[in-house]
Amino acid sequence: MSVQCIPYSSPRSAFVEAIERDGCVIVSDFTNDSTLEEARKEVQPYLDTQDTNSTVGALNGGTKTCTRLVGRSKTVREKFFSDPVYQDMVRHFLNRTTTNWMGDDAETNTCPPLLSIGITMDTRPGSAAQRLHRDDKNHHARHVAAEKYAPDRDMLFGMFVPGCDTFRANGATRIVPGSHLWGDDKPDFSTPSGGKFGKVVDAELKKGEAFMMLGSLYHGAGEYSMKDGNRMVHIMFCCSGSYRQEEISYLSYPVEDVKQYSDVVQERLGWRQSEPNLGWVDLKSPEFLLA
Ligand SMILES: O=C(O)CCC(=O)C(=O)O
Ligand SMILES: [Fe+2]
């Protein structure tokens, strides 16, 4: 199975069909060199403050990051994250519409998606391959094996916008097309002719393309095997908006007050990261802000 590359101007249905079939799609003509250069300039100061040894979160060492990306890069925010094709896919796969009974009245409402993470990952020499994983593991999403895609199956939808061509030697993301339809048993990436990783393909991208995928797709950064250079990727994921608290505790309870609360209350208000990698600030459990 391979991944389809679809021109930006194609009808939305072409993207939906590709994503439902493969779990992902490459969008060609998504952006251009000058826009990528603007984005690079905006994140570079943040990357420059970092060492490359971090192993927090999903990091394997050899990777610099710019967290809080949607706030820090106007270009990522307005050109990539706000892109109409990306946002239409986000709405298509993550909107939750339900009809509920209020006494005798049927009320139908749609809950729009939310940004879950925006981060630039700048991978450099010394970065090992990530283990193949599903990003929705962070949300403890569960999956029933299926032949065909069904609405509301996913709660996470992401886009990767590389700042350079990506290929095997600079750690192009390894993906397993079709794995979004797998269940939660131990994954089998093998094929009779291709060996243990026969179902895994490199999502090699040209500068200017974008890669979109469902949160249930098995994938992982490849090994950065070159001696120099870097692979910059702007990554953004939205989750279904129903994955949030009813009362926004972070805006309702001032940090100075939360510092006085007991551990259990701090945890219920969301001030402790859960594993794996859910609810952090700058890749660290937010308790450091309460110190
Ligand atoms: O850098 C990449 O290509 C993928 C990164 C990734 O999958 C992750 O950090 O969860
Ligand atoms: Fe991932």
From TrEMBL:
InterPro entries: Phytyl_CoA_dOase-like. It holds the Pfam family PhyH. It comes from the Eukaryota. This is Phytanoyl-CoA dioxygenase family protein. It comes from Lophiostoma macrostomum CBS 122681.
